[in-house]
Structure formats: structure tokens, C-alpha cells
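Objective 1b. Sequence-to-structure analysis of Flagellar basal-body rod protein FlgF.
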Amino acid sequence: MDKALYVAATGARATLQAQGTVSHNLANADTAGFRAALANTEAYRIPGAGHASRVGALHTDAGFDNRTGAQRVTGNPLDVSLRADRWLAVQAPDGGEAYTRAGNLMLTPNGQLLAGSGQPLLDANTGQPLAIPPHQAMDIGHDGTVSIVPLGEGPATLAVVGRIRAVDAAPAVLARGLDGLMRGIDPRQPPAPAAGDVMTTGVLEGSNVDATGTLVQMIQLQRQFEMQVKLIQRGDDNAQAANSLLRLGG
């Protein structure tokens, strides 16, 4: 009986963790460039002295769904949509380099260019946050080159002020951090810079979360959790009944 209780208890814990992942996906159904997190459950034998008779359920991080989200034409010069396996390089809160596909860029009053996730974009040439001088018009090229028309100048004075750093990275070499940003799994082998056309301006990639399917998954996990809790309760009832029979027999 204790085996059944253990399996049900560890299964309920894994189900709760899976619900957290699904809830996170559902909350980001409208986040530009968001990649849905994948959750999985696997069985594992409990190590330790004695006979290996205990098997538990373990929640595992299965990475993220790399399918491209829906494309929406906005006409906004600060909206960019990246090619497959291309990521914007940003300065993470800890000062390191991280990656995102949030292409709804923002320009702060002091001229700093930010990704939609709120972190400064890095310059491909200097590796430092990209700063845009005062201007009356700005253009982002398909290769990430940022050009401006300075204040008081005509269109013929288009000047290049930097190039947005973008990297080429497959899902297998990236992992999502607690801050929602992607980072390379192996710090010794950072993702390679992306060459050629890496983005389209005036188009925004949405989240790849299927809101309807995710909501159904949430309901399924809730019912699964309720079933596991009922199994634990039934096991406890059976144990109490067995103890009562033993007392009567004594």
C-alpha cells in the first residue's frame, strides 16, 4: 500500500509542477516572440540502501517549442520578426549575454534600444548596448544594421550608427532562465553570429502558444491531480481499515 501512496504523492507533485509550466505558457499567450515551455514526467527508481522497490514520478524540463509564432504586419519601424533559429542578443540583468525573440523593440528617451523583453540590445561590432543618437528618422535593415537621418538633415544624409547583434542558435544549445531569457547551455561555446538577412522590419512575431490547447491541457492536469489526491485519500482509508482489523484480531 505504501508503494501506491508514494507513486500517487510523487505523481501529484509532478502534476502541480506541470500545471505551473502550463500556467506560465497561458500567461504569455500574447507575448511577442514567446516560445512555449515543454514539460514532461518520467519514472525513476529511488536510490538508497535496501531493495530498490520504490519508483517515483519526476517532473522534467523538456525545453521549449521552437515553432514560429504567427506573423503580424504592423508597419512599425521598431517591430522586427526574426528568421528561424535567429535570436536577438541582449544584456542580461547580471551583465552577461542572453537571447530573446521579442521583436517589439523600444527606444528610451536617452536613445537606448531595448528588446521587447526590456533588456538593452547589443551592438554586433562592439558587444556593448546599442545607443541611438538624436534623429528624425530611423531604419533597421534585414541584417540588423541601424541607420538614422540626424536631426535637421535631409534623407541623403542617412548614417549607419550600429548593427543589432543576432545569433544563430538551435533549440538544443539554448536553455531558458528564470528571467525568461535564453542562454547558451555551454558557456565555452557561445552561439555564432547570424549572417545575412536575419530579420524583417515592420512585422512582429507573436507567441507560439496555442491558447485553446493550453487551456484544455490545464483542465486535464487539474483532473489528473484530483485523481491522484483521491488515490492518496483512498490509500489512507484502506490503511486505517487494515489497522482496525489488526486491533480486532489481537
